[in-house]
Fold:
Amino acid sequence: MSVFSGMSRPMKAAGVALIGVAIIAAVIGGITALGGGDGSNEAGPSGTSTQPGTSGGPSSAPPSTSSSSSATPPSGSTSSSSPPSPSSPPPGQATSSAPGGPGQPGGDQQASNKWVTVRVFNNSTIKGLADRAAEDFRGGGWNVNEVSNYSQGIIPTTTAFYRPGTDEEAAAKQLAQEFGIKAEPRFEGIQSASPGVIVIVTKEYQSGHKGS
Structure:
């Protein structure tokens, strides 16, 4: 016996329509279910493929850290290179040297004054007085290259004569200070004499005497 038995024709038509709708809904639901399952299956590989990218982020971070840390030592080594110690003399700087002997450059002005030629003359009756004075001067590092007599007049006291404005002036004054004698410009009688400090020794000269 059919489920539509006893129903009127309109009711039967409505029942058939409802059954058709239910079948169509079931078919659509099945298709949707199948489509949803396929979508989830396709989404799985997509999510899985993104996972290495996420895990690759941290793995790429250590090289960046190690590269920055490896860059630090060159920076430190650059700062460790310091300029030469100021205590060491710079290249090319002249070092102090001991004053040279007669005729050689010395380390200061006093030593350089002793390059100047010194000529010693005896103006007394004491034989060999000029020689003794010359030995005293040489012992002090002076460049004595002539010893003789002066008989053109009487000089009051032992004096070192120089030409003003020349290197003889500083040399004569230094020699006079060392040996306790006078230093004066040349007088007319010796103006044209050979260059150099002219020391005329007189009888009061004391051999070996050296002033302060």
User: Anything to note?
Assistant: Residues 9-80 form the longest helix (72 residues). The longest strand covers residues 143-149.
